[in-house]
């Protein structure tokens, strides 16, 4: 287990290194662009040149990258050109708010998705099964901004039950969390329900379940005693691999409801060409994905010890395939 | 053939076909000029000043929403198809090379794919669009960059599996060129899974292009596109829901059509595998 972990951590470090290079190359190679973004589009050519010179932008590229990376690792993420504040101080409270949103979503979404998936997979081809499948297809097909519009039209415009924005100005309230959580649950529960269903169908068709059935065990005993334990392994890893998707949805949902989280911050940064803030947000997004992949591997190995041997010998396993 | 006549495929193809036709014949279908200011914030069903009716109302600048929705189908259908095709061209070529040759090509390409897939999708799009600026071509580049790795993985697995088979060995001994082996011998065997993935990915791409439009990072105004219409109407959405509901219905029905099509094709393929 330990060598497996160290191997995965090494792979993670290498991925992060490559990602940082990619972010650097995409956003910082064109230095005139950087100067224009930092100083604003109305700055003069002389001002830009002086600023670039002063900040060492005419040094060779590898040196600049090394300096940039070192600053990043040591927590010097630069100053936001739009907010005029240290990027680190800006991001910390936003991450907390987004974490709250994601945890609330997972807490609502996982029980719903697993229950629906297990119920659908118990009897393949039943009316319930078809119903859950169609529900899952419909909900995953609606983009987050569209379901946000639909739910707002119903609960804010017609019924007037919930607030239309979730700025958390008066502290965290259930009322303000309800719509963002509902939208994220709608768009992500379907996929996990379908995965759970597939896994459950496979287990229900396996020889040991048939044996139990022939032995005369009751359906509830078969499901709770045998099937469930084996059927839930796959969905657990899928849930972890779903996190990058959830993070994309979070950006849209936060912007829609003006939720003061990481997504709104990245959105503001991109609208205002706030380059250092964008770089930091991108890197944090990647850290979140890579860590969730690692967690998914660890959980998977823990649930299925046979994998740990295979994993230490083979290359690191593939991450999220849904892209 | 009969196994393709299932309700999911028929409904899916119907929805997708409908929007493709709307996109193709937009100038004949739209009752008004999508860029012309008529009567701001007119509610659905209001008669228009110069004759005709705003069936779905008018937006903040007084432009007919139905006409904008019809014209908005054009960039959505064209861009998501084009972007998915370029992603496929890159992903399939790289996947065939990596799967067939293995070795360092495979290691390098797989690592690159892993790195790109480590980004939350929308974050990657935002970074690329910020670097390149919002324009139709840059949206296509961003989508290609972000979704080619997933296609790559599918094709790579299939190619790595197939190269062990006898018919490939036969093709090699016959002296067929490598490109012929990759694209004529191996690729046709991947069409089944790739067709299903293509429909799904077209749906994802449509959603992402919509989301970029919604964030104001898609196509520059005033050309109508569905995500952009939602973005423009967002500020007033709680007072005038008609500004945003119809473009949302449009994009949802198009993506639903693609998902149903993918689901139906997948089931039809499964049935074929079992010999029914």
Amount of beta strand of chain B: under 5%
Shape category of chain B? elongated
Structural class determined from secondary elements of chain A: mainly alpha
Give the strand tally of chain B: 2
Specify Rg of chain A, calculated over alpha carbons: 24 Å
Q: Which outline of chain A best applies?
A: globular
User: How much of the residues of chain A is beta strand, in percent?
Assistant: under 5%
Low-confidence runs of chain B: none
Share of helical residues of chain B: over 70%
Task: Summarize the helix and strand pattern of chain B as letters.
Answer: HHEEHHHHHHHHH
What's the gyration radius of chain B in Å?
Answer: 22 Å
Given helix and strand content, the structural type of chain B is mainly alpha
What's the CATH topology label of the largest domain in chain A?
Answer: MetI-like fold
Give the end-to-end Cα distance of chain B, rounded to a whole number of Å: 12 Å
What is the number of domains of chain A? 2
Written as H for each helix and E for each strand, in order along the chain, the element string of chain A is HHHHHHHHHHHHHHH
